[in-house]
Amino acid sequence: GGMSMISLGVAGAMISMVAMSGMFVSQDIIFNRIFTKHQDILVASPVEPISYLLGMAVSNLLSVGVGVLPYAVLLYLQGKLTLDVAFAVLIPLLICYISNLMFGFYLGTVVNDVKTGNALGNIMILGLIYLPPVYYPITSLPEFLRMPCLIIPTVSASQIIGHALGSPTVVADYVPIAWLILILSSLIFGVLTIKNVRWREK
Question: What's the N-to-C CA distance of the chain in angstroms?
Fold first, then answer.
């Protein structure tokens, strides 16, 4: 794609890191809940359930933050990442992380087998990151496929971040829709998690 496409690839790498980190929390939840019963120990102790969830979320966020940093440096060296642009990139990345984290928490509460959780997480990553237009431009798809792809939170994040970085392949009309999808997906997955959470195995 040439030098003009490098920033889109770097943005895709950042999105894939936050999405995978959020999604794979499902494996930690399943392992802690079913295999080691560690979750039962925590919940039976003075640790509040919300503290457990926040602990998992923040610990993953710290590790993914370190992973995203080299990509941010690359964008800075390209002259793409100024202070204003940094916020326009960071906020959708954070919302994308929350959306995938909530989905990961949801899977972790409804899946009752460690192997199934591992396999499902890998399949979801394929469907969320590598097949849809996250690393490649949405304009390379036929027009009738673009809107259905935009429903995927990682694709929405890619459009928002690509627009902030001035990518010529981003469709500006999709950006407001992408913001709406990104926020709604976080809320929907959050509600699903709260309604389906099981703190102890029966």
Answer: 54
